[in-house]
Amino acid sequence: MSVVDSMPRSIRKNAVVLGLFAAITVAIVALIQQGTASRIEQAREQAQLQALSEILPAGSYDNNLLEHTLILDDPLLGNRAAEPAYLAFLAGEPAAIILQATAPDGYSGSIRLLIGITADGNLAGVRVLEHHETPGLGDKIETGKSDWIHSFTGKSLINTDSDRWEVRKNRGDFDQFAGATITPSAVVRAVHKALQFFDAHNEQLFASALSSPTPEELP
Amino acid sequence: MFLSQVTSPHTVRHDHTRNIMRRVILAAIPGLLVSCWFFGLGPLFNVLLCSLFAAGFESLVLKLRQRPIGFYLKDYSVLVTGVLLGLALPPWSPWWLLLVATGFAVVFGKQLFGGLGQNPFNPAMLGYVVVLVSFPVDMTSWPAAHAVTFSGGLSHMFAGTPWLDGWSQATVLDSLKNNQGLTLDELWDGYTGFGWLSSRDSELVNLAFLLGGLWLLHKKVYTWHAPAGMLGALFVMSLIFWGGNGSESNGSPLFHLFSGATMLGAFFIITDPVSSATSTRGRLLFGIGVGILVYIIRSWGGYPDAIAFSVLLMNLCAPTLDYFTRPRTYGHDKAKRGFNTEGQ
Amino acid sequence: MSVNYRELTINGLWKNNPGLVQLLGLCPLMGTSNSTVNALGLGIATLLVLACSNAAVSMIRNAVTPAIRLPVFVMIIAALTTCIELLMQAYTYQLYMILGVFIPLITTNCIILGRAEAFAAKNNVLSSAYDGFIMGLGFALVLLAIGIVRELLGTGMLFANMHLLLGPIATNWTWVVFENYQGFLLAILPPGAFLVMGLLIALKNHIDDRVLARKPVEVVTSAAADRRVRVTGVVE
């Protein structure tokens, strides 16, 4: 009898203790979370800005890029879902845009890119956000591994003809790497398409951001 | 009564390891000569350097392990590892690449497991994969046939001078893998040095290894099971998934049999008695597995050729294959196969 | 119960090292040891969680019944890990992004629950905290050693990107050890972790053998302690 009687009591006691510890640990985590929330937000924003500012030269814009964004979805950009684009202004005039694009045909899957284009249609810079290319061969598209990605800077639809947007091996203007052709040519084609997208929607992009400060669906 | 306990296999052969290994090296000579005809003395230098390094590493580890060096060197097994690596690696490979490959093959692939007979993986293929994963650029720059001068090759090998334009060429398997939108006819028309089935150099080198392998079969160094299994599986797979001449084609069956390291793999690599399966049926399955994997990786994987990866993967399966293919013991009706037969 | 701090130190750093002898926490050991900065970052995070969780567990060891002991321990460890994760996010954001899933995974690191069960649940706060600290240090040092070897072999450089952890003062710490180094990719890729780890264990066993050979008298007395112990218990 006594065993049966005492069982609910011990269960109750254990439950209370367990609940107490849950409450204490949650309280501690919540406290730390409260304390660090603003700093985390700041750090995240700074990291994002840092990545964006590598693409556009300092002094070429004077607004906070994270405050002027558009949500873009267009087949020319190749993204799987709508992605944000960042607009840069200098003294209220359109200066540049940073687009997110995806090259779907890398050697092993998609390559995600950040592409900076100045308002007059020149490439300001390209960076790779994410890729799965072979280490040692295709990963030379990263800035840390080689300078190749910088070769885009200054190119435009005007100074490079449409059929020159390929690697040299396919009779284009861009170098390939030793042992890898597919990766660089996928990136080149994706950048070319992003430029075409920008060319078609140039004024629309900047106008929509000037008229309303909040992010907006386009087109 | 004294009952001696002898574990299987119970067959007795009077060949010494040394004789077998010597024959394997002899049989590789035609392939080496043909290869030298296309790439100058590069393949020979590869083989010599690899053998030298292999013997050096073997002696070093044997000394550390306090084993008799001469006794083990005389079985020629480490020489076979060196020769096979030298043949498999791109001709005129930089000396340090050969050093790393043989080092991993002999030290990590063979001696760390206990030396000859103890290694679960084919040492040469292990060394090959290590450098393939580590130095992909050097491993994908095969010289073009008849292009490299002797001094150019030597300075590439020892001084690290990069290949001049036109001295290196993508292999046929590489070109096929990187093909974007050309039909096969167009692709091979644009490929300098294309022969009947594959590039002239790789089809003739493969033919030479095939002949060497047939001689080894004739000398009963190994049985037909593993090579037949691998070549048969590769043939059937490439027949099924051929795709004709279109731009999505995976290449014809004969193209696959005479490209890359197919014949070298079939007659010199997967026939390694240590790391492959031991029963004949096991060897047949082992070969079939390698053939299927080679085709899968070549056609849909990340590398143009795949002998090394396939052999290593099948090495992993060899103990299981042996377990399920134990031969019938003399005097019993039925071979017991599968798990859980021990206690019954 | 009196605690021999000297013994705790020797156990944590060498004799019962969590990385090399107990072989616990192998997943983060392999996953984050591809560069010095990653290794150091995760090593410090693990060390902090381990020391704090041991202290906390020891503090409440008399308040919980055996029936709910494990859930309470796990809750404490998970809370501490979350706190560390939040702090790293706030102060070393880029390193946090690189280490990614391995930080929350500290919760599931066997060393931490193991030390809580085997030591902190039976000893006072101070010695438990010390045990956690020294075990964490042993783990972090192994992680750091593997990280240094892999970074050096893989890239020919040392201490690249240390500013992610230590701030701007470490910006120029990158030390190019070998000029014109080809880069040995295998060392940075996952197989490199297993190879370096195996070689480190071999080195430790070799040193142990040497030490044993030099002191033949002590063989008998120390035999039990030199056995390779895979469980988390301290050999006493």
Defining traits:
heterotrimer; A: 219 residues; alpha+beta; 2 domains; 6-stranded mixed sheet; C: 236 residues; mainly alpha; two-stranded antiparallel ribbon; 11 helices; 2 strands; 67% helix; disordered C terminus
Give an overview in words.
The complex is a heterotrimer of chains A (219), B (344) and C (236). Chain A folds into two domains: 55 residues; 160 residues, no CATH class. Helices cover 38% and strands 21% of the residues of chain A. Chain A has two helices and six strands, in the order αβββββαβ. Chain A has a six-stranded mixed beta sheet with strand order 5-4-3-2-1-6. In chain A, a hairpin with a 2-residue loop joins β2 and β3. Chain A is elongated and about 80 Å long. The C terminus of chain A is likely disordered. Chain B is mostly helical and 344 residues long. Chain B has 16 helices and no strands. Chain C is an all-alpha fold and 236 residues long. Chain C has one domain. Chain C is globular, with a radius of gyration of 19 Å. The two termini of chain C are 13 Å apart. At the A-C interface, α1 of A face α4 and α5 of C.
**Poorly predicted spans of chain A:** 213-219
Question: Looking across the biggest beta sheet of chain A, what order are the strands in?
Answer: 5-4-3-2-1-6
Q: Mean of residue pLDDT of chain B?
A: 88
**Global Rg of chain A:** 25 Å
Mean pLDDT of chain A, nearest integer? Answer: 83
Range of helix content of chain B: 55-70%
Termini separation of chain B: 27 Å
- State which percent range the strand residues of chain A make up: 15-25%
Number of helices of chain A: 2
Low-pLDDT runs of 5+ residues of chain B are none
SSE string of chain A, helices as H and strands as E: HEEEEEHE
Shape of chain A: elongated
Order of helices and strands of chain B: HHHHHHHHHHHHHHHH
Oligomer: heterotrimer
Number of strands of chain B: 0
Through-space gap between termini of chain A = 76 Å
Protein name (chain A): Ion-translocating oxidoreductase complex subunit G
Domain FMN-binding (chain A): 106-198
Family (chain A): Belongs to the RnfG family.
Main location (chain A): membrane
